[in-house]
Amino acid sequence: MSLEEQIKPFQLVTHDSSISLIMAAVGSYKQHIFDEREEEGFEGGGHDWQSLAVVFLEEKLPHLQGKVDLDSESSMFCVYSKDRAAIEEFAVAFHALCEDEAQMRDLFSRAELD
Q: Are the C-beta atoms of residues 69 and 19 closer than 8 Å to each other?
């Protein structure tokens, strides 16, 4: 299985001097997890995914802090870096987290509304 297939619905986008991991289909993938905290203001948009990613980086991949940056918008989740290996490591690990809903819920329970 290719990396692109392994991390769907996330996508890698190569730029001149950096690489991004994006998900443009926010609001569809794992939306039910975000709906569980709807009363707190979470909607499942890019900023909410970014809140989850912040906790994920702090707790699961602290060695990537400073190597990857977050720049999400309401309609798109985005992580970027000049270090391709760092983005690929983040992409695989973050997708694996999302596929383990118990672990995703646990980390998301500590996410703060952006």
A: no
Range of the domain at 20: 3-108
Distance from C-alpha of 97 to C-alpha of 77, rounded to nearest angstrom? 15
CB-side exposure of 26: number of CA atoms within 13 Å? Answer: 21
Sign of CA dihedral 96, 80, 36, 110: positive
CA distance 83 to 19: 7
Confidence (pLDDT) at 85: 97
Roughly how many angstroms between the first and final C-alpha of the chain, as a whole number? 35
pTM of the model: 0.96
CATH number for the domain harbouring residue 27 = 3.30.1360
